[in-house]
Amino acid sequence: MDRTGNGTSLSALLRGADFRRLLTARVLSQLSDGAFQVSLASYVVFSPERQTSPADIASLLLVLLLPFSLVGPFAGVLLDRWRRRQVLYLGNLARAGLGLLTGALLLARAPSWLFFLAALLVTALNRFILAGLSASLPRVVRPEQLVTANALSPTLGTVAATAGGGLGFLVHRFVPPGATADALLVTAAALLYLCAALSALRMSPDLLGPDQHPDRPPLHRTLLVAGRELADGVRHLVRDCRPASHALAAITAVRFCYGILVVTVLMLARNTFNDPSDVDAGMATLAKAVAVSAVGFFLAALISPWCTRRFGLTGWLAGCTGAAAVLVPALGLTYALVPCLLAALLLGLVTQSVKICADTVVQESVEDAYRGRIFALYDVLFNLAFVGAAAVTAVFLPLDGRSVPLMLVTALLYAVTAALYARSARTR
User: Fold this and answer.
1) What is the dihedral of CA 164, 169, 175, 176, to 10 degrees?
2) Can you give 231-277 as a three-state secondary structure string?
3) pLDDT at 402
4) Residue 277 counted as domain residue
5) Range of the domain at 39
6) Which parts of the chain have pLDDT scores under 70?
7) How many CB atoms sit inside 10 A of residue 286's CB?
8) What are phi and psi of 142, to 5 degrees?
9) CA-to-CA distance for 377 and 368, rounded, in angstroms?
10) What's this model's pTM, rounded to 2 decimal places?
């Protein structure tokens, strides 16, 4: 394993060849995700033939995320057995094939349920691969480099996903909205998935682990014991890893709040900031919100290593969550474009900072033998929080995206999360 560099600086981190290879696989994979997800948004949210409601968005998220949330923890058992390099390679290869199939279904104007089924499989593999990337990171960096690596790696992945989304918006600038544009974009995403699969082959098969333990049952019995091993992982998390369990609770609440705000921005972009019939204008507004949020993610990567050294992981996590409680009512309740874009920038910064802290806490406090299961559980909590947020908005958010009570409740939840997490840190 190449862990070149003894310092925690960015230059020392990037001198590690294995880290660079893992980072390349992440960037290419999430670049593909961004393009694919914009094609979904175009089909469901910005289709000229649809009058989109929060319930439509909730239904899409339910179809794409909830099924994997039910089986995701069992995928974690496999991440602690299968060679994670092979997961990155074969998973992205499968997504390339499914992406091409999805594009063909769009061109053939197949029934919507077939499109959603293909998209569901792509998204399920996506969550599996992201959990594997997070579980692999401690295998390619030194322990003292984890905070910097968690600032850089997921953040560059998010920026790459944003760039992939930008590719989608660019396609829609030159190709009229509809099935042809969406199919073209899905095909481009499939080719990028293929590049991500090939990039994983640059790493040695055993580089990313996991370590083999002779007392484990053989692979053909893995699924039979998955339930018991998942329970072992949860017990390890609750009994032996209180810092990790508290961090997971905090990031789940933050993700729930962020999901509410994402659906709100979608409805504002479609029906308030623009004429609902002007699909191009709605997508352009959404592109601006995504772009400034990506800038916030990038700023989080720059400042989080210094801030965690200054305030500690728990202090920075709690401080960012508390800041969100102030930003949401101060900027969001204006329901004006410029303040909402500023809110997207700042909330991108604090949300990504919270994730950097939570990732690091989990990686530092969870043993490698359990790490795949815990990160798969982490991913499931992420999905359920987002689906739950979409369900709440489907009930309480009007078509124009304006709901003062919902904004105030979201701000209150941010504040309560910050207070409880800070209290648990002091208790520990």
Assistant:
1) 140
2) HHHHHHHHHHCHHHHHHHHHHHHHHHHHHHHHHHHHHHHHHCCCCCC
3) 93
4) yes
5) 12-210+233-427
6) 1-9, 47-52, 63-64, 67-68, 70-77, 213-223, 225, 428
7) 23
8) -75, 155
9) 15
10) 0.71
